[in-house]
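Q: I'm writing up a methods section and want to include an example of the input and output format. Could you take the sequence below and give the corresponding predicted structure tokens, formatted cleanly so I can copy it straight into the document?
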Amino acid sequence: MTYSTKIVFIILSISLITSCNSVKRLSNNEYLLTENKVLVNNKKTSDLEVLSYIKQRPNQKALGLPFGLYVYNWAKPSFEKSVEEWRLNHPNNVHFIRSLFSAKQINEVYLFNKKVNTLIIKNGEAPILVNDKKTKKSVNTLKKYYFNKGFFDAQVHSEETLNGDKKKKITYHITTNSAYKVNKLTLNIESPILKTIYDEHKKESFIKVGETYQRGFLEKEQLRLTKLFRNNGIYFFSKNYISFEAIENDTVSKTRELKLIIKDRVIENGDKITIQPFKQRIVSKINIYTDYTFLKKQSTYKDSAQYAGYQFYARQKLRFNPKRLASNIAISPKGVYKDEERVQTIQYLNDIHIFRTPINIQYLENKDGSLTANINLVPLKRYGADTQAEFTHSNIKPFGVLGKIGFINRNIFKGSEILKLSAQGSFLNVAEDVSDPDFNFFGLSAWEIGGNLSFKIPRMMFPINTKKIIPKKMRPSTNIGISFSFQKNIGLDRQNITGNITYNWKKGSKVKHQLELINVQYINNINSGNYFAIFNSELSKLNNVAQVLPDPNSLNSDGNLTNETATTYINYILNPLNNFANTHFENFKTVQRVQERKNIITEDVLVPVISYSYIYNGKQGFNDTRFSFFSARIVSAGSLTSALTQESTNGRKELFGLPIAQYIKTEFEYKKYWQLYNNNHLVFRTFIGAAVPFGNSTEIPFSRSYRAGGSNDIRAWKTFDLGPGASLSNLDFNIGNLKFVSNFEYRFKVINNFYSALFIDAGNVWDLTNSELTDNTSKFKGLNSLEEIAIGSGLGLRYDFGFLIFRTDFGFKTYEPYLPKNNRWFKNYNFQNMVFNFGINYPF
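A: Here is the clean output for your methods example:
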């Protein structure tokens, strides 16, 4: 598509959209609402809280256009109810159909048109009309809003003005006048214990003498006091006992006296009502029923145990260690009742995934006024297992058996631990015939097995006592995992083992800490010399080059390379002394790519890691769209392991015959979400990470290096295509050990469940090492490297299924740092070089 064609296409598209008549369905006395404008003291406001009180809003717009309304107007709101009516209204269509098909097809065409019309209406948006009743209601709610903010004399009125043919905008004029202030706060708290608790915490009050009177602060104070009292032993207290009385005592200075009233407890016993002062309650007894069922709640409990003031019961044998289960209960024996302890106990017991939810906790009042807490727990099944089996048959592998088994044990050591174990294996026939030495009776001459074990412990299993710095209210847990996979006569006979010990704990609802005491990855390819025998396509590429650049020492009698001589040939082509990089560039690059892929796939390495992560997530609830996120992580690889290991004969430290990777890595990520209006949001994200090798290593393992591009990164480039730095590499896998990326995305609703986004991505990867394998254009050179930050922009389309979001992004190269400096902007900003990305859910 040429540039002139693109311009014509864009102009025609815009003309088509803008030519849509948004008011063609309106009658003479109807007006389309196009804009709401709010002026507060003659200044326009975009405060989302204020705007939310307007009861009628214009049609949803995307990029300034009401696409939903256009779609709706394409349809007929009053489509013919019968085929006979449709025939009368469309005689030309009926005549045309009869000329091509039989008369019976007319009914089918009618039904088809009706379904299409219904679908269009369903996915469109009816015009939002100016409604006087809703306008008056908006005026009243705005006035009430400012009244609750302390502006008792606020004046609100609306004004309608024409905004085009049969279109109107509504302007809401708000004059707040001066706000009233609280000049005095008096207390009327009847129960002495409540007065004592209030006085101890009165500095935390939302009501301040001398500040503006606001209804919202009264509601916050009501909630604060309710929470305060219920966390200080006042079990029977509720917010209904709290009321406020405002007395306007000075209209000139606009002040009000505020009275806080808290009544005594009202007790209803049948027809009898008594009033008593509130009392502080003690939880004198805590009963934990470990196998509770509602149908057998009156049955006898045969087993019981007591630990630290907790009483445990079971109908059969007690399956839980009382000490371990008690560590998940926040309610204090013989302690003052605290509502927060009840909530924490539910959270703790939910987190261990041993019992069914919801967790039921009941409090009963004893004759002496104390409370008994009954915690009713319904355990999940202790054991679970699943198996899968499959038999295969093909010309390549005549017979094979594949199987998988999974097992779970809840409460394995009676301390609410969860053990998960899975194993899988495949046994295949790779022998050619019965004369093959690898052939056996079943024809299963090769195998691959793997397994995974995870062990979750709902507490800190650490060599030293951590209760003082990580108490149980932080919900600490220990996760131990190990996975492995082994091959024999399959591929490269790879051995892959990964093990970790991870600790997690939380501080409040927003902050999470994670410490990986150890995370070890072991990768060893036993048969890496068989690479070119397995990847025949790679050997074919080398043979194609060998026809142009032959090496007599590598070719066999047929003039071809073999699995054994391919590596020798690679070294011959890549030898700088032969100068093939300058004389035969394309062939040189082909061999270089083959070598790169071989190095990645056959990489043998041991990566022992210790890391710490700090995560702050300000999101409150699933629907929160205005929050921030921050994470920081520091990683040390190989430091401790190398210190305990002797150097091998080649001068490098090895363990189990593999070199130990040593590097330090730090990573920071920040995300910010803003809600602009309705379904329009702005999202910003930035990430920076650096990994520096030292000691035993001169580079970072491929699996731990950074790459740029892809559907969740810089979307105008494919994964691995960008960088490092300003280099224009022809390799398939471009990586670095320094990465910076930032993303801006404007998300908006188009129509129905269809959403869209405009985005700008910027970033790159660089090389921080002094390696001679990378040229100067790939290296990070301080502030001078900022001009090597690539920029991509584009458009995204999304469809919201409710449980997930289907996402496509179209990325265009906006600034390409590897091009000449005077030709980097918009050089390849076209459909031909566009990158299409597919993803599930949002990219960040």
